[in-house]
């Protein structure tokens, strides 16, 4: 069974944890806030650990040493960046995915070999696409 | 010399004041509005408001010049690490000094090559070790780049090393005695130096050799 660590159990982290679990992964979730467990539903069958994802002892307890994947999805960009690098460089986790909201930092760390998802850039692209899709026929109408 | 200071808490503000007094050009970056406004009264245009982990904030402060030194002194270790990485690796800042708030994060700073670092907790602990007699081996100095450290060992009467010359001791590989302090006077340790009870010995060694050294000198 593939093992995943999800750090941060907000809207994003909890959804990822639930989906990975549905897809057959062994999932451990880490969040500073005990109440975040409720986001995982009434009967979360995976592991949930309360603590800070930068704490190396806690990461070991969460099983980072034999994890196949780690998703850093706390609400702090910098926390995610550090956790991602620690997972990759110190614990040799094969698949590390890091959420960074700030496009500038996302670009810099993507260039340095981190696997980054930047929701802000994704949102900008989609919004631009949607806006262009409205604007193009209107422009043609004007031209016609 | 140009210095950017990230974080205008007690440490950042005092360091900024001291650097300005020495005649350096300094820009201090502080995120919190209340703190910023207080700092602005004193430092005027030399303090800017913003999150020092944002590239545009750093650029506005002149990181692209680049400064001679960046001091990452915020209260958040993750921020200090990010500031250090961006300053060094994106903008080629030659020297970054970072504050470690939680000593448990020290390995992360080391992993990411953020050095030198300063940690108030570790400094206090080193002083406590120095003052409290139960600590028979005291860490005096860590030479991170060299991966060596300097420690002080107190030789007492029943220590196995008492009465022996240094060359007769089988000191662990990767360790060496530097000096012997006796009766208020220090002498460079040589092979023929004979250790006596009450000596304070300085040793240089690779980290992790403390226990072996302790065994040879003190049998503990």
CATH superfamily of chain A: NAD(P)-binding Rossmann-like Domain
Count of DSSP strands of chain A: 6
Strands across the major sheet of chain A, in which order? 3-2-1-4-5-6
- Portion of residues in beta strands of chain A equals 15-25%
SSE run of chain A? EHEEHEHEHEH
Question: Measured on Cα atoms, how large is the radius of gyration of chain A?
Answer: 18 Å
CATH architecture of the largest domain in chain B: 3-Layer(aba) Sandwich
Low-confidence stretches of chain B: none
Structural class of chain A: alpha/beta
CATH-defined topology of the largest domain in chain B: Rossmann fold
- Quaternary class: heterodimer
What can be said about the biggest beta sheet of chain B?
Answer: 6 strands, parallel
Q: Beta fraction of the residues of chain B?
A: 25-35%
Sheet with most strands: strand arrangement of chain B: 3-2-1-4-5-6
From the spread of the alpha carbons, the general shape of chain A counts as: globular
> Whole-Å distance between the termini of chain B?
49 Å
What is the CATH first-level class name of the largest domain in chain B? Alpha Beta
Helices of chain A, by number, come to: 5
Helix fraction of chain B by DSSP (H/I, runs of at least 4): 25-40%
């Amino acid at each position: 069974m593939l093992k995943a660590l999800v750090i941060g159990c907000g809207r994003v982290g909890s959804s990822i944890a639930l989906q990975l679990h549905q897809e057959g992964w062994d999932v451990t979730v880490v969040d500073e806030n005990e109440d975040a467990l409720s986001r995982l539903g009434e009967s979360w069958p995976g592991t949930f650990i309360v603590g800070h994802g930068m704490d190396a002892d806690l990461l070991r307890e969460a099983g980072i040493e034999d994890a196949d994947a780690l998703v850093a999805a706390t609400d702090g960009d910098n926390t995610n960046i550090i956790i991602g690098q620690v997972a990759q460089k110190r614990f040799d986790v094969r698949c590390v995915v890091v959420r960074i909201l700030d496009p500038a930092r996302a670009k810099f760390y993507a260039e340095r070999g981190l696997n980054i998802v930047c929701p802000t850039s994704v949102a900008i692209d989609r919004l631009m696409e949607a806006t262009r899709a409205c604007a193009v026929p209107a422009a043609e109408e004007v031209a016609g | 010399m140009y210095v950017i200071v990230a974080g205008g808490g007690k440490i950042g503000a005092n360091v900024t004041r001291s650097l300005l007094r020495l005649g350096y050009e300094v820009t201090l970056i502080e995120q919190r509005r209340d703190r910023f406004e207080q700092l602005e009264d004193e430092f005027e245009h030399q303090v800017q408001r913003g999150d020092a982990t944002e590239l545009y904030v750093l650029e506005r402060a002149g990181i692209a010049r680049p400064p001679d030194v960046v001091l990452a002194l915020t209260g958040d270790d993750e921020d200090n690490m990010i500031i250090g990485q961006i300053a060094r690796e994106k903008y080629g800042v030659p020297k970054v000094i970072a504050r470690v708030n939680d000593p448990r994060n020290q390995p992360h700073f080391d992993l990411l090559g953020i050095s030198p670092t300063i940690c108030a907790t570790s400094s206090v602990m080193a002083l406590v070790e120095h003052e409290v007699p139960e600590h028979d081996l005291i860490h005096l100095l860590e030479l991170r780049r060299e991966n060596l450290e300097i420690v002080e060992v107190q030789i007492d009467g029943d220590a196995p090393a008492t009465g022996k010359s240094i060359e007769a001791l089988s000191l662990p590989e990767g360790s060496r005695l530097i000096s012997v302090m006796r009766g208020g006077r220090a002498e460079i340790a040589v092979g023929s130096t004979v250790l006596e009870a009450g000596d304070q010995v300085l040793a240089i060694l690779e980290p992790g050799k403390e226990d072996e050294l302790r065994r040879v000198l003190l049998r503990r």
